[in-house]
């Protein structure tokens, strides 16, 4: 009985130390992430050039804000990698928007395009010394889920589009 009391007392002291040590070791294994803004694009589309000198990729900042019955999407194309300015092509179409950017001289010969297999509604085409960034919601394969462009503009010389999709 005396040995059982000693063993129980020993376990009462050792058990919390073991638990704390395990938690500390587990916490050290998990990587720490710093909160803050996303400074690099979170989506990358590969550019398939058919002639000339083309950039390798184009980055998109794409954010989704889900809400009951749908989601609002915001996309900004990083055209600053190959162009200094961007213009919005006028259109009243609520499911299609196009921006045009004159290419810098080192990419002016580029003919090609970037279109993601997952994101077919985002497209960049390079031709005639210009880059054309398009958001075409008609290419979303979601029958019965209406989508519409709610805002389009140019922010820091980059195309900026906000669009929504509903159930």
How would you explain this protein's 3D organization?
The chain has 167 residues and is an alpha+beta fold. 17% of the residues lie in helices and 44% in strands. It is built from 1 helix and 10 strands; from the N terminus they run αββββββββββ. The protein has one helix at residues 2-29; strands at 43-51, 57-67, 70-77, 87-89, 96-102, 111-115, 122-127, 130-136, 147-155, 158-166. The chain has a 10-stranded antiparallel beta sheet, with no helix packed on it. The longest helix has 28 residues, at 2-29. The radius of gyration is 26 Å and the shape is globular.
**What is the strand tally?**
10
- Following the backbone from N to C, one meets helices and strands in this order, namely HEEEEEEEEEE
Look at the helices and sheets and give the structural class: alpha+beta
Strand content: 35-45%
* Head-to-tail CA distance between termini: 69 Å
Strand order of the largest sheet: 4-5-8-7-6-1-2-3-10-9
Main β-sheet: number of strands, strand sense, barrel status? 10 strands, antiparallel
Output mean pLDDT: 82
Percent range for helical residues?
10-25%
Shape: globular
Radius of gyration (CA) equals 26 Å
Taking pLDDT < 50 over at least 5 consecutive residues as the criterion, the unreliable ranges are 14-33
Oligomer: single chain
Helical run tally = 1
């Amino acid at each position: 009985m005396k040995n059982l009391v000693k063993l129980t007392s020993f376990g009462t002291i050792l058990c919390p130390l073991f638990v704390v040590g395990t938690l500390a070791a587990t916490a050290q294994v998990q990587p720490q992430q710093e909160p803050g803004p996303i400074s690099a694009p979170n989506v990358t589309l590969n550019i398939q050039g058919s002639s000339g000198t083309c950039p390798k990729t184009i980055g998109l900042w794409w954010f989704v804000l889900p809400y009951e019955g749908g989601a609002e999407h915001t996309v900004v194309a990083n055209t600053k990698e190959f162009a200094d300015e961007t213009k919005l092509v006028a259109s009243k179409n609520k499911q299609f928007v196009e921006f045009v950017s004159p290419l810098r001289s080192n990419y002016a010969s580029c003919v090609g395009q970037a279109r993601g297999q997952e994101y077919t509604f985002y497209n960049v085409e390079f031709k005639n010394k210009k880059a054309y960034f398009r958001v075409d919601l008609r290419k979303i394969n979601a029958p019965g889920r209406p989508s519409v462009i709610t805002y389009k503009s140019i922010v820091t010389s980059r195309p900026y589009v906000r669009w929504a999709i509903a159930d």
